Amino acid sequence: MKTPDSRFYCPLITIGTITLDENESTHAVRVCRACAGDVLQLSDGVGHFADAVIEVADAKACVVRVDNVIEAERPRPKVSLGIACLKDDALEEVVFHAAQTEIDKIIFLRTDFSQEPKNSDLKKTVRRAELKSLVSLKQSKKAWMTGIEGPVEFDKWLASYQGDLILCDIDGERQLNLIGDGSGANENDAPITLLVGPEGGFSPREIEAIKTFQNGKVHLLNLGNTRLRARTAAIIGLGKIL
Fold this sequence. Notes:
Low-confidence stretches: 181-185
Strand content: 25-35%
CATH topology of the largest domain: Alpha/beta knot
CATH superfamily of the largest domain: SPOUT methyltransferase, trefoil knot domain
Radius of gyration: 20 Å
Mean pLDDT: 91
Structural class: alpha/beta
Number of strands: 12
Oligomer: single chain
CATH class of the largest domain: Alpha Beta
């Protein structure tokens, strides 16, 4: 038996016989050339894994058998990324990289200086971002799929948010002491959201709103001496706190 070096997405993993959807079946049978008797590693994106033996290697409806379901050892991550809406394909690029890390979700924020197309609802961007998050779940072999939320007005999001904030700021600390178990949880087990503004940053009004936030702690994080593109700042910022 062989095991393809990838995970396959199965939204409902149960003991017994499962038929994978056409996308996963095609990936397994046509791309990975898996055959009956081979083992596929399944993930549901919500903390469960399983080794599944192929019973019917059908590229449209691959049938597998699961004998045991394994729960992830680590809890769902507490860290999320809140990033301003960007132009072109920048948001998708951010998701492609960020969703490979252990973060809970990525929130697209409409800020004062957002650079999205005028009057755009970003539906296509959100859908493509969800697909990239799914690909990242399988490629990175992590337990929890990174959720995609928004776009949402920054003021509305901040007013409803409960948890700690990390703002990328030139006057911030080079390293933050976030106490946890490596899953991004802090000492109070509160959610943490890293905030990254658009090109040019958050507006002075928004920065003041963040720094005076009352429903959690506010940390300022310095990303270095050079000026970074928003998409670059998001990845470097996550790298410093995860």
